[in-house]
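User: Predict structure, ligand arginine.
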Amino acid sequence: MQDMQAKLRADYRPADHTIGSVDLLFRLEEHGTQVIAVSQVKRQNPAATQLVLDGDQLQCIGVAINGEALAADRFEVGENGMIIQADLAEFELTVETWLDPANNTALEGLYKSGGAYCTQCEAEGFRRITYFLDRPDVLARYSTRIEADKALYPYLLSNGNKVASGDLADGRHFAQWQDPFPKPSYLFALVAGDFDVLRDRYTTVSGREVALELFVDKGNLSRGQHAMDSLKLSMQWDEQRFGLEYDLDIYMIVAVDFFNMGAMENKGLNVFNSKAVLADPQTATDDEYHRIESIIGHEYFHNWTGNRVTCRDWFQLSLKEGLTVFRDQEFSSDVGSEVVNRILAVKTMRNHQFAEDAGPMAHPIRPDKVIEMNNFYTVTVYDKGAEVIRMLHTLLGEARFQAGMRLYFERHDGQAVTCDDFVAAMADASGVDLTQFSLWYSQSGTPVVEVSESYDPVAQRYRLTLKQHTPATPDQAQKRPLHIPVALQLLNQQGQDLPLLIDRKAVAPVLDLTGSEQSWEFEQIAGPVVLSLFDNFSAPVKVMQPQSESDLALLIAHAKNDFVRWDASQRLLAQQIFAMVEEEQTQLSMTVVDALRAVVLNDGLDPALAAEILTLPAEAALAQEKAGLDVESLHLARKAALTQLGLELEDELSARYRACIQPEYQQTGAAVGERALKNACLLLLAHGGKANSEQLCLKQYHTANNMTDRLAALNALNQGALPGAADCMLAFEQQWRDDALVMDKWFVQVATAANTDVLTHIKQAMAHPAFDMANPNRVRALIGAFASLNRNGFHAPDGSGYRFLTDQLIALNGINPQCAARIMTPLMALKEVDGERRTLMTVELERLASLPDLSKDLYEKVSKSLG
Ligand code: ARG
Ligand code: ZN
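Assistant: Predicted complex:
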């Protein structure tokens, strides 16, 4: 039986003992792994007479104190660890365990990925390696010796610097690693295997020479260059923007095929999902190039925000994740397109985070109650966490924000701290009162801001009133007003910016909304105003703002701020689709069609931005914005809008499509933007469904010289449900069947194609030789994508989508509970659907709840959904 007890943030107590250093020995054998851990333990709490260690699914071979084996009555091994009788101030503890990495399909602790050994210890995986104080506030110095067969595992890697290596008897060898920085156990890593290595160097700003090593599967060296370039760019950016320098002589990244998440920031030895490393033009899309750059940056930036300063306890996860996501977003934006990166982040919030806030798992960015920590690596902790840091940045400005960062490191380098410590450093360095602001850490849910305006032409005054309220969430009934930074512009009817004057003084374009209702009166306003609120998404809120079609069209055409133009397009399209769902109109109005026509025709507009404006809001985002919409009607209305645009703008789209075609493939910002616009045009044309549009797709599919164009053509054929789709799917499968990473794109296409018997196709695809239920990338590409991206298919009125997902969850529960819990999220959206669907979902949730061996991961989400 698993321990389903929730842990509370309020129950935090410092550990009774600390561990100054630990010497680890790993003997990797073909039938299992022997681990010997020798820890130097010190008592912190003089009253403690027992040492309580965490342990999970371990085979304990022996325990010794100060070199003497412990008699059976001195220690007790249980389901969650070990209790040792030890009334000593200081002692050396030796623990021997035996592991079975080859059968560790949960991919936590030490496991085998293909032919290589690797580890994943965050959050609580180290306790699957040895009995330990497996908590982030216990910082120890690690030295690690690895022994293994030399031919099979020529590379033996761990954290820090390699201090010794050599040959052993029987064709075996060893390596000894020493990490000079004390670290929590979750940052420990070990890798053993055979790889190709891409080597490079980086000289830091103070002249330190760092060896860079990227380990990939044999034959994949050429696919590693982009990751290596991204790493060097990250190192340089962190020096320039944050004044932060790397601190070891070596930085290693290993790409593995079996991995639960994107990547892991282990000190000096990052382990990456191969999907987040490998790229070349033939196999990776522009989106993937971008994602690799951002994840490489993310893990690198953790070296300061996460590793040098870490979390006191796991409730503080956003301390490192929110901050590091903010940093990787700023990196992407500084080295690429600011507006495109902002749009990407906002889509994550609107398509996913708002849904989490509206569902049974709603939690603050600093949760109060957790059953399985792996369930809290969420869009709330990560992405809303980053939005909270961004609001701080908005309130303080870059200079004071950086002063806050310097104070944070000055105070806390080498420590395990809390979110409150971070906010205190920001407040103390800036002099800004953040008392009310800190509520963003403890309050869950998405605030709703209601807008009303009035204009007095005689007095030439414009009055803006904002009301805020946060709907109750299952974890918190009472909500208080938050400190919300409201970035705004007032435009005149020509789209020009108006000066913001209050009491004859110019005011900054960011208002502080702190009460539940507040008004501002702007003076010297000569005529009617077009309001642009929450520029750059200055706060993670929903906005209720009735705005006319013509005002939104004006913002799309004339706003100086690119984000405002995109946001206006999304709001205009959303309003129109809602009107179509509610049968107030049968199609998009001419104002909208013409506004988008102008975008297609405007070759002065950044192509990447134009592509985003021409992309309709996702069904998931629309469903969050307006509750109670019928799933199918929403799907059909959005589709009708796409078809209408494809037909009415056919000439303009075709012309722009042709104008974007480039003679040669390049991986530059400009080329990526042109491809994005070309493919946005193609997608609309495909929805139009004309024969010549299909010809365009087929031609692009067959003549493409890069994966971005090839996949975009395939996707357009599938989304437009065009007859040529099937042949191209077959051709793609023939070409890439042996490359599982590329086949993931094919699996996503199978799962999201707009056909009626999608489940039949998915079940067939599960029998494909490239599919593997034990590989999370495959599972997410086929089953995850169906549940999360094919909203209409998943919510089929007969419940077949729910039943299918549940069958897979039951299979995965025994293989990889973490992966199962990640892909079950769409099954929790009970509140988004009608009563009949809710009943069908409930049946499946109950089927899960009654499983005899339900994992903690699924238990937490299932019980909350039913609760
Ligand atoms: N710290 C990693 C990152 O954000 C995430 C790893 C979490 N892994 C897990 N199994 N929960 O880069
Ligand atoms: Zn992270």
